[in-house]
Structure formats: C-alpha cells, structure tokens
Amino acid sequence: MTAVVDRLDSERTRFSVEFFPPRSDDEERILWRAVRELEPLDPAFVSVTYGAGGSSRDRTIRTTGRIAQETTLTPMAHLTAVDHSVAELRNVIGWYAASGVRNVLAVRGDPPGDPNGEWIQHPEGLRYAEELVRLVSELGDFCVGVAAFPHGHPRSADPDSDVDHLVRKIRAGAGFAIAQLFLQPEVFLRLRDRMAARGCDVPLLPGVMPITTPRVLGKFGELAGAPVPSEVEEKLLPLAEDPAGFRAAGVELVTQLCERLIAEGVPALHFYTLNRSKATKEVVTNLGL
Ligand code: FAD
C-alpha cells in the first residue's frame, strides 16, 4: 500500500478527500456513492475521520479497510488518543495494519460532548498527539500525518508555542501535516513560513471545504476556530435565501482560494467532503486538477 508522501508530486498540485464514518445504512450508501464518484479523479489519498464513540471507531476501521481492499484509492485512517489506553491504541493500529491501511493521521482528539471542555487523559493513555505519532511510528512501517492550525489551536497560549508544538510532533516522526480550515490564504502561508523558519519543510496541505449552503458556512466558522472573514460574509450572506446563487458564489469563492494556494505551490488540497462528491468534483474540475 502506498504512503501518502509518495502520492504527493513536486511537479503539480494534487487533491485529497476526507470522509467521516457513516452512522447508518443510508449514510453508508451515500458515502460509497461519493467514493465511487471521486475514484476516477485519482485523488492522492482519501482519509476517514475517527469519532468519539466505540461504534463510530469500528466504522472508521471498517471503512478504511474496505477502501484499501475494494478500491484503487490510497486510504488514510485518522486516530485519536481520546478515552484510549495505550493497549487499545496498539490494538486499533494493529487493525489498521491488518486491513492494509498504511497511512495514519495522528491527532489528539477533542473531549467527547463539549469540544471546549477539559481534556482528560486516559489513566493509561497519552496526553499529546506527539506521543501518538511516536506510538504509531514504532509499531510498523506507517506514514504518519498530523494536524496543523493556521489560526492557532484554540487551547494554545500563543501562535509561537503552537507552531513549536507542531514542529515537535513532526520531528517525532510525521511526514506531513494537514491544516484546519481557513478562508484567507495569508493565514495559511504565515503558518507555512513559521514552520520553514524552524527548519521544518514537510508537506503542509491546506484543508478546504466547498461552501455550498449557509449551514456549511456556519460549520466553517466552528471548525476554523476563527470568525468567518467579513468580506466572505458580505459576498455570501445576501444570498442566504437563494440556494442556487449561494452555492455558485460559495464554490467560486473556494475555487479562487484554491487557485491562490496552487500558485503558492501547495502539494495538495485536502477537501472536507461531508461525504458528498458533487461540490468537490466541481472545484477540482474548475481547477483542472
Ligand atoms: P496536539 O498536537 O496534542 O495539541 C493539542 C494542544 O496542546 C494544542 O494547543 C498544542 O499547541 C498543545 N500542545 C501540544 N504539545 C504540547 C506539549 N508538549 N506541551 C504543551 N502543550 C502542547 N478530531 C477527531 O476527534 N477525529 C478526527 O478524525 C480528527 N481529524 C482531524 C483532522 C484534521 C486535518 C484536523 C486539523 C483536526 C482533526 N481533528 C480530529 C481535531 C483535533 O483532534 C483537535 O483539533 C484537537 O483539539 C487537537 O489535536 P492535535 O492533534 O493538534 O493535538
């Protein structure tokens, strides 16, 4: 199975996609429709997030394993340290290896329930993503990625210590990083410069989400950890009652963001798909990727 870093090409920008594990048979069908629609576009890799509960976690293992075995795609499984002992984490990593998954995104995860609540370490578990990177790396020939935060992680004291922690987890064994959502390219580029200033030049992939509805725009603000920029609100909010107009403007806005990122030489654009293919396909096609 190919490593994510080997799917990134220094000559051209590629794209990758992110799914979440389906919660029902209906969602499973929707997910697999999206997988099959995106497969012919040859994404660099497809990732599946890791949820908070036991059954959601089983579905991540099952879904990534199925992608490894039944498609031509390169899968990546996310893994978090939330509510897991080290023994349980070893077990999950073993399942990934057994089902042909060689790429793991090692993230700490947020507290279940309230993402801003207190982060409580499992008594026999890990505290930071850095330790998870080490654990995954020592358990096999995995290609490990980590999360990065262009606006700074909400729990960080200041941007500098946040980048220091990011660089530490990369030095612990990660080969690449994926950035949380943002809408202003400068915010992403500033993070990339800060990493470079610390001598860290692993691929940093921007997280991108096509803004198709006012609800998705709201989710954007939550995930990015920063308010939606006023110029974006001014463009999109007047179209809130016009679904087709909103969608077209949102897709155009994200296409323009991606064009700038491609001009800045990003190795790949990582699309949060919400398990749908249509908007991602549209942006990827607009960009000629
Ligand atoms: P860490 O790197 O451990 O950092 C957490 C906080 O601790 C930060 O403030 C950091 O600056 C600080 N810190 C780190 N190391 C140290 C140290 N040594 N000393 C002091 N402070 C330190 N969540 C899920 O539940 N499932 C997913 O599948 C998932 N996928 C994601 C994918 C991407 C691309 C991104 C960007 C996020 C994802 N998340 C996911 C969310 C993520 O788990 C949360 O944002 C979490 O709060 C941070 O995870 P992390 O890996 O960056 O943590």
UniProtKB/TrEMBL annotation:
Record keywords: FAD, Flavoprotein, Oxidoreductase
Domain of life of the source: Bacteria
UniProt similarity note: Belongs to the methylenetetrahydrofolate reductase family.
Cofactors required: FAD
Lineage: Bacteria, Bacillati, Actinomycetota, Actinomycetes, Pseudonocardiales
Official protein name in the record: Methylenetetrahydrofolate reductase
Pathway: One-carbon metabolism; tetrahydrofolate interconversion
InterPro entries per UniProt: FAD-linked_oxidoreductase-like, Mehydrof_redctse-like
Reactions listed under catalytic activity: (6S)-5-methyl-5,6,7,8-tetrahydrofolate + NAD(+) = (6R)-5,10-methylene-5,6,7,8-tetrahydrofolate + NADH + H(+)
UniProt cross-references to PANTHER family, sorted A to Z: METHYLENETETRAHYDROFOLATE REDUCTASE, METHYLENETETRAHYDROFOLATE REDUCTASE (NADPH)
Pfam families: MTHFR (PF02219)
